[in-house]
Specification:
This protein is an alpha+beta fold and about 450 residues long. The chain is about 60% helix and about 10% strand. It starts with 14 loop residues before the first strand and ends in a 20-residue tail after the last helix.
Length: about 450
């Protein structure tokens, strides 16, 4: 069971932030995520899907009206007894005829269901964009988890360095008093002074590294008003139960849930719909409708109009071939994304199981060694041990503390790799819930929900 490292008093910033608050802050305030959610005018949108779902305006019915109120008909065009107007024998060459009226209602008809294909293309593009946003959110959350744990790790490294420096300072003061009483040699005091100065320099280096880690965390959260004050809050530890994960189960989970795989699948669906649309466009879209006409002499005509383009100059074959090539590339890209996911999961599982073993193996050693160092300190104060042995034992204790910190940090980074490789959105929710349970431990905090899986969110 890993030993928790308690949070010291803030030494660099002024405001502490929990893991849950950091994840929420990154999700809502990270500039990259905010810009990605807003999108751009050329990106797919729900409005574009709604537009594609309906017929385009070019398929609206067209009303044709041709009205000619004035008709100048040459004399005796229809014979002397024909109707259609009146004239005088001695009148002009032309005489007035009746009104001419032509009505036609024309409706374009898509025989290849092009509107359905356009809708599927727009829907696939919108789904792909949504999954891309979710992938960016997942990446941002995992990156925030990395930065938070790295900052907490460097905070504990700083604390350990300060404890060593404080011990060496107290030891130097004690040796100086004992030197005045001729109980130790000047060489012991000189050695203690060297150790004290070296420890103080290590504290400065640890603090600087901590400042760099805090800067990364603050930039990741992206909250300007707290950018200079945020510090990690809480213990630096893994959950009390650190399970070993099954590789095949994690691979299946990744293939079912990773947002980038869903985005690639949506892109492939869009490419398939583009092929069907290109083939459908090879079918001419005719214009049909009824028509009615009354001419100048009152003759009426009722019929049907049919207009169709002839696919002779361009029958659409080159576009179909282009779309089929794009469809093949989309499926190859999907296969590559899936293969990359499998490779990442296997590598992440191997790192996580190795880090788990290292954390579990180092559990409890610090407490045992700390008791031995305490015994050696009492022996030194009683004059039954020399300074070199005490300092060596103390150094070993500090090395073991740093080693356990390193093991826990490596486990958190392996955990982050596994979360990103699996890509399950429920894992992020589980991480938030675990952070809340860590703040208020209870009987349900034994098993981390980070490893729970669930079906992906609906499109």
């Amino acid at each position: 069971m890993p030993t928790p490292f308690a949070s010291p008093e803030p030494a660099v910033g002024h405001q502490s932030v929990s893991l849950q608050a950091a994840l929420y802050g990154a999700l809502t305030g990270n500039p990259d995520l905010v810009a990605l959610r807003e999108g751009n005018p050329a990106a797919a949108s729900a409005e574009a899907v709604e537009v594609a779902r309906r017929f385009p305006t070019t398929l609206n019915p067209t009303l044709w009206i041709d009205y000619r109120p004035i008709s100048l008909i040459p004399r005796e065009t229809f014979g002397t007894g024909a109707g259609g107007g009146s004239s005088s024998k001695n009148g002009s060459f032309y005489h007035n005829g009746g009104n001419y009226l032509y009505l036609s209602l024309r409706q374009p008809v898509e025989l290849g269901h092009q509107t359905t294909h356009r809708y599927h293309i727009a829907k696939a593009a919108y789904d792909s964009l949504q999954w891309t946003v979710l992938q960016a959110e997942l990446t941002a959350l995992v990156q925030t988890y990395r930065f938070f744990q790295t900052a907490a790790y460097n905070r504990e490294r700083t604390r350990v360095a300060e404890e060593l420096a404080s011990f060496n300072d107290k030891l130097l003061e004690s040796l100086q008093r004992r030197l005045e009483a001729n109980q130790v040699t000047a060489a012991d005091v000189a050695l203690a002074r060297v150790e004290s100065r070296a420890a103080r320099q290590l504290v400065k280096a640890a603090r600087q590294t901590y400042v760099v880690a805090l800067t990364d965390l603050r930039n990741q959260i992206g909250v300007p008003e707290t950018a200079g004050t945020v510090e990690p809050l809480g213990e630096f530890t893994l959950p009390t139960y650190v399970p070993e994960v099954d590789e095949q189960l994690m691979i299946q989970t990744a293939l079912q849930n990773r947002p980038d795989i869903h985005a690639a699948r949506a892109f492939a669906r869009g490419a398939d719909a583009s092929v069907r649309l290109a083939k459908a466009d090879r079918i001419p879209t005719p214009v049909i409708g009824p028509e009615w006409e009354i001419d100048e002499v009152g003759v009426q005509y009722v019929g049907l109009v049919f207009i169709s383009p002839l696919p002779i100059v361009n029958n659409g074959t080159p576009l179909v071939k282009q779309r089929e090539a794009e469809h093949r590339r989309a499926h190859v890209a999907l296969q590559q994304v899936q293969q990359r996911a499998v490779s990442q999961v296997r590598a992440s599982v191997a790192k996580w199981n190795g880090a788990r073993e290292l954390v579990n193996d180092s559990a409890g050693l610090i407490d045992e060694l700390a008791q031995e160092v305490s015994v050696l300190e009492r022996l030194f104060q009683a004059g039954q041990s020399d300074l070199t042995k005490l300092m060596q034992a103390r150094q070993r204790l500090i090395q073991l503390q740093n080693a356990q910190l390193d093991a826990v940090w490596q486990a958190t980074q392996a955990q982050a790799d596994l979360l990103l490789a699996i890509g399950t959105p429920t894992m992020i929710r589980g991480m938030l819930a675990q952070a809340q349970r860590d703040a208020t431990p209870g009987p349900d905090s034994a098993v981390p929900p980070i490893f729970e899986t669930a079906p992906p969110p609906p499109n």
